[in-house]
Amino acid sequence: MGASQARYQQEYHDLVDKSGFSLEQIKNLHYRFHQLSGNNETISKGNLDIIPALEDNPIKSQIIDAFFDKRNQRQNETGSCEEIGFEQFVMVMSHFRPPPSPMTDAEKEAVRSLKLRFLFNMHDTGSDGTITLEEYRKVVEELLSKSEHMEEEVTKDIADAAMLEVASTNVPHMGPDEFYEGITFEHFQQILKDLEIESRMHIRFLDVDTTTMHCGKFSS
Q1: Which is the most buried residue in 28, 78, 173, 189, by most CB within 10 A?
Q2: Domain check: are 43 and 131 in the same one?
């Protein structure tokens, strides 16, 4: 028991340095991780799929997939995995950590870029650095899936029109016969340049509020 506790303590301190979370927050996340995993060392998509707060989220599948996308685990790898351990879980959660205050302009830009990259990866399901029209259509369809009177053809038209608008903004001199390959990360940053995302991108669907986490205080 003592050896196991010592191992956890060392792991906690290592994750504080890697993630930016406080020691107390790391402990809380470990508690929640074991709730989700059933006290196992890893969690699968099935463990996240049964979270009640995610049930009615129109992009539930993208949110869950994001946890198993190696790009979001800060390991400089691509691809996906079937299960993740606690460190991978924490590194994905760290994208939702409130930014430190005060921040320099360079720090603010770094935080913003990290959060935007996470959002971009959620929609770039092909991991090729571009959100294609097909990927964008899927997002729009899922976002509008709760609209009972919205026909599939209408959602397709909405996605196509939105992508055309993005193309005209990012490639204003594109010829009529040119094909717009999709949204690059640079385009994505430009599209969201007026969105204040640094302090707004939090996570609550795991019953963890990273803004106000306190030891042992969780919703079931």
Answers
A1: 28
A2: no
Radius of gyration of the chain (CA): 19
CA–CA separation, 59 and 213 (whole Å): 25
The tens digit of pLDDT for each residue in 41-56 reads 999 999 999 888 788 7
d(CA 137, CA 211): 33
For the domain that residue 15 is a member of, what is the CATH number? 1.10.238.10
pLDDT tens-digit series, residues 108-147? 888 889 889 998 999 898 899 998 878 877 777 777 665 5
Instruction: Find the domain containing 142 and state its range.
Output: 100-201
Same domain assignment for residues 135 and 147: yes
pLDDT for res 170: 63
- How far apart CA 124 and CA 166 sit, in angstroms, is 16
Alpha-carbon dihedral sign for residues 185, 186, 187, 192:
positive
